[in-house]
Structures are given as C-alpha cells and as structure tokens.
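Lecture notes, unit on protein representations.

Consider one protein chain, 761 amino acids long.
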Amino acid sequence: MDVDIWSWVGGTQRQLHEAGNAGLAMALGDVPAQALEGRYGQLDVVAPAVAQQAEELEQPWLELFARYWHVIGRVGDRANGAVALADARELAEFAQRSDVSDCPAASAAAEALAITLANTDGPGYADERLAILGRALGTVGPDSLAFSGLTTQYVSALLDDGKPAEAVTYAEAAVERLRGVGREASWELAAVSARALLAVGRGEDALAALHAANGFKPDDPVAKARREGLLHSGILTELGRIEHAVESLPDLDVVGEHPREWVEWSQVVRKLAAGASIANSWQLGRVMRQWMSYFETMGGHRAQVELALTAGHLAIARQGAWQARELADLAEAVLPELQSTAGLPERIAELRAAADAAPAVPPPGPQDELVSYFDAADGRTADPERWVGWLWPQSGKDLEATRRHTTTLGFLGYAPVGADIYWKMIVVDADPANAEEEDIAYLTGLLIEAEQDDRVLDLASRLSSPESHLALARLYRARERWEETSAEAELAVQGGAGLEGRRLWSAAVQHLGDNAAAAEILKPVLAEGAEGEEEDIWRVIVLATATEDWATVREGAAKLGMPLQSAEGPIEEEWHLIRAILPAPDGSQREVLAVRTGPATARLAIPQPRGMEYNAGDVVVVDPRPLEPIPDSEEERENFVIPFAGVSILRPGGFTSWFFDGAAPGEHEWTEFNELLAERGWPMWVYSDDSYKVTHPGTGEPLPGVFGWIAIPPSVTPAELDAVLDDATEQWVHPLAWLDLSREVGVEAERHERIVKEYGL
C-alpha cells in the first residue's frame, strides 16, 4: 500500500463519520489490523461487508481496499492457495478498471495475486508471477511503499524459478534504488535478499544481511519476530552452528497457528533432527500430517508435497517405514495438481527407496499376543507409530488387532488407510449385518473422517434398524445436514437405539431451532437410574432454560444435587459473577460481566455500545461448562471469574445505552458520579484506558480522558438521564459531553458539539 492510501483512508473515515456511517468508518480503519493480527473471524465478516457497502456507495477505491485486505488475510499468514486463486485474480482485474487503476493501492492487487500463486505452486507459477509483478513494478517507483512488497515477491519468484544468482542481483539493485530516494528496504525485502544469498552458497553474507535488517520496518510487524527467528535458524543450520540454530528456532506452539511458516519450519527441523539436536517424535509426525490436511483443504499443492517428503524422511529417522511409504503415496497423488513436477518424482522415489531399506523394529512380543501387549501399554509413553507397524500383519485378519490398528491409524491422520482395511474385513469379506455394534461405530467414524460418504451410505444399506439409521445420522451430523440427521436419529430411537440416538436427534432438533422438542427428546436421562452422563443432564437444563420450562430445570438441578431457593416459577437468584462470552457484530466475541441467576442463566451487568444485540439488564442463557479451567490455588480462585459461552437471550431488559466522552474529572468527583448512577440502578462502564487523552482547549496540552456508556431501563426517559448528568457534572473543571443524548432530548446539542470540537473528542 502506498503512503497516500493511508491519507485517503483517514479522509474517507472522516467523510463516513460526517455522513452518519460511523460503523463503516470504524470497520474501515480496523480491517488491516484484523488481517495482520490474525483476527480472521472478524475479517471474514467485516471485509466483505465493507466491500459490499462500498459498492453500494459507488466508492471503488474503498471496495478495492476492503477486498485487498480480505485476500491478504487469507493468503498471507493463512497461506490459502487454490481456494483463493479465483478471488485473487478477480481482485487483480478489478484493480485495472479505469475508475480504480489510479488508486495508490491498485498495484498491491498484483502482489496479492502473486502470493496466492506462490501458495498454490510456487515453482509451477514462477513465470506467471514474474510477469504479473514485472508489469506492476513498471507502474511504481522506489518512492512508493508498494515498491518493497512487489520487489520482495519478485525476488521470491526468481528463487522458485531456480535463478538464485539473478535473485541476489535484483534484490541488491532494488535496495540501491531505494537508497537513491532516501528510503530503506522493508524487513521482508531484506529477509528475501538473505534467502537469495543463502541459496547461492553465501551463508555468512546471508547472516550479515539478516542482522543488518533487524531495525528495518516490517510490512507485517506481528509476524516479524517468529519469521526472523525461523530464517535465522535456517541460516545457522546451513552454517553448521547447530546450538544457536536450535535456540533461534521458534517453538512448535509458536508456529503452529501460522501455516505460512509450516513448510520452512519442518525443513529446518528435519536438518536439526538429523543430528539429534531436536526431538523427532511421533507427535511431530502427527502434527505434520494435520498440516498436510490443512493444505489439502486450502489448495496448497506444493506445500502438501514438500511436507509429505519432509515428514517421510523424519518418519524413516524414527524407523517408521510404513509411514514413509504412505507419505510417498500422498505426495505422488498431489502431482497432477501441480503446474510443474520437475524433480519431484525422483524425490518421491528416493523416499520410497529409503523406506524399503529401513530396518524393521522388532515387536515387543509374539504376533498372536500383540493385542494384549497393546492393551497393557502405557497410554502416555507408548509410541502409536510403532504399534501401527507391529499390528499391520494381523490387521484385516484378526478383529481385535484390526480395531486397534485402524483406530490408531486414524488417530495419526491416516483415516483413509484404516478405513480401507476395516471396510474390507467388515463389509467385503463378511456381512456387516452380523458385525458388533462397536465395529460398525468404529468403521462409520473412520469412513466419515476419511470423507468416504458413499461407503457410509453403502454400509447403512447393508444394516438393519437401528444401526442403519445411526450410521446415517452420524454422517449427516458430521456434514451439518440437520433435517436428515433429525429424521435418521428419530428412526434410530424408534428402532431401539439408546442414548447416542437421542443425543443425535436432540442436537439436530436444537440446530433446527426447536429447543423445547430438543429438551423433551433428551429428558429421559433425568429419570431414576437412566442411562446418561452429567453432560446430558446439563444439556437438558440449558434447553429447558431456553424455553423457560422451569419445572424441567428444577428436575435437572435436583438430579445434579444443586439446591435452589424457589420451588416454582422462573429461577431468578443472585449467585456469582461470571464472564458471558457473546458474539459481536464484527464476527469477534465479547466478554461481558454478568451475574449468574440460575443453573444456566445470567443477567448482564455492563452497558453495551449501540448496535449490539444485547445490553445490561438482559437475561441470557449460558452453557454452564466453564470455557477455562478453574485455578487450583485458592488465591487464584479468589480473583477468577468463570467464563461461560452465551447461548441465547432469554429475556431482554429493555435498557438503552448512551455514550459519554470528555476530560476525566478528579477522583472525588468521579467517585460521587459512580455512586449517583449506582443508586439509581443505571449501569455504567468505562471503555477507555489510561492511554486515552483529550486536548485542553486553552493550552493544547493533553489531558487524561474518559469515555464509556451508561444504560438506563425502559422506565427512565432520556430527558431524565440528561438532567441527572447535567446536575452531576456542572461543577466539574472540564465538562463532559453526551452528544447523542443531547440531540435525542433536543437540549443544548450545540454546547455538546462545541465540547467535542474544543476537546478533540
């Protein structure tokens, strides 16, 4: 993005505010932060909404801005590939429109497309990336902030094209051009320059370049530390400085949420593990298999292959030859998706040869006793990869061995392999109608996990009721096809299915919006001696609460041994503070302090800004399972407020919130102000922090500021609140402003407008 675009953003925000579109103005300013800070739930809601409003307002620059950041949020840290390619191409085409091409951000669309192509198949799309970026670079000079980003991607494309020497030359020339206009490279450009130097064998120069770039401004400041540590570790590994390389390598829990780093991190780990400098465990193999599945979903075809090959060699080092063979097959299966496969068949063949040459690990006992050994193994220390190899000769022949073998395969990420073995044994070589319920449940789960839906349908057609309906209900639940889940689960229950059938049926009916019916379906768990767990009882309580079936709530509470103060009617008690986790309009979540009033209810205590679907005084249904573990120590528990997920609003309180803003008063005045509002039962909450400042109208000096919301019940008019605020603050040194309230009441709106302007609120 060019520096001019940020000036334009600020101006556009002011225009939107003045036009009364404050929500869009706030969203516009927050979209880039959502993309860079990983607030993807918000980004995926807000950015398309901003783009749509921009289109309706006929503001194509604003639409480009929102669409660009949404694409970057997908293809940057999340490393989306083929699934984002159509959107990235459409963005690039949109940026070339006559009413958009003059936008300072237009060239950034080419950068987004190049990144998406690289995520899909970097080497395969290298030529196209170079062409796209070359055209974009022809429209900007080194004085543009877009220059560094485009150049970074150009150097990266040269590296993927197998031209590291040319990449070094190009990067050095770009840095000189930047210096010529008094600017320095971005950290990302310096980092890719270091990669190019490493690729031509100049490791010491690469290390020096990376160190020199430490103070450079990053385009992605949130990611800089981990990306710098990863690159530093990779360079040091190549230089043989293993101890320092291990120290620099970001931990798995650091990179685990950032797909962009997975391939590079895995490759560095493979080199370090070869010298036993870092642990090479089955847990690592399982994680890498999960990463492969992610890239399969996101169309990161090249990343899938690279991860499979890296994970395969790590598996061989762990003496997991079976896994290396499976990974070679997975890598080979992706080759048709690539634009270029140069060198890959040879690397796959090399992995297979290494697997064939790997020595077998002897089992802990005779083959016919391995099931007993498996069952006796310590679940915390046993190596599931080893057990897969040991059980394989018996799998598909011995039922007990097959159960353990295939479920362990599924646990390690190889559900399709386990499903094939189990399917042959249960369906092809036998009659599934004669199989144990346990085997049908295991097989169905593996087939669903392996996304072999046709086989589930086939299996169900071979079973009688209720097993046939249970198999289909499990499938439809996994695919979120709730009407079909409900129908099949109901038939399963009618056919004699037990608790699982009721759970499936109840959950489906709840998703279809009928809480009362969902509670009734599961209610038999409340009967004396009934099958069920505590979680089922709580589920009935939540469902019954949502429909205000207080008799059932009391029945469930009694089953749990939970005393209640009242014997009939609504349960409205005063228990303890909780944190209710509720959705926000931008796709994020908000923590709202509330008072728990019953087994599954809470009354919100904090006023919310306008535009929220809930406010202080609302009674909400909560899921009574804590979202965080309760601390062990008594000292920690004293200050711990349990978070619960909000389910729905049970009863609105009818409160209305009004915004206030201004210079903070003295401590005495503020205490009196709080007490005054508390006496009236008008919730107030300060949303500002200590960093919020306003401007002294006389001296221009910064003053501590305060802003927040006050909520009043439906029995109180806005005029009453205005009068109370006026009386309470008239002696303050600096006035408080409540502009929206004054406009609503029609009293002294001009005075409040003046306060807002003079204090820079």
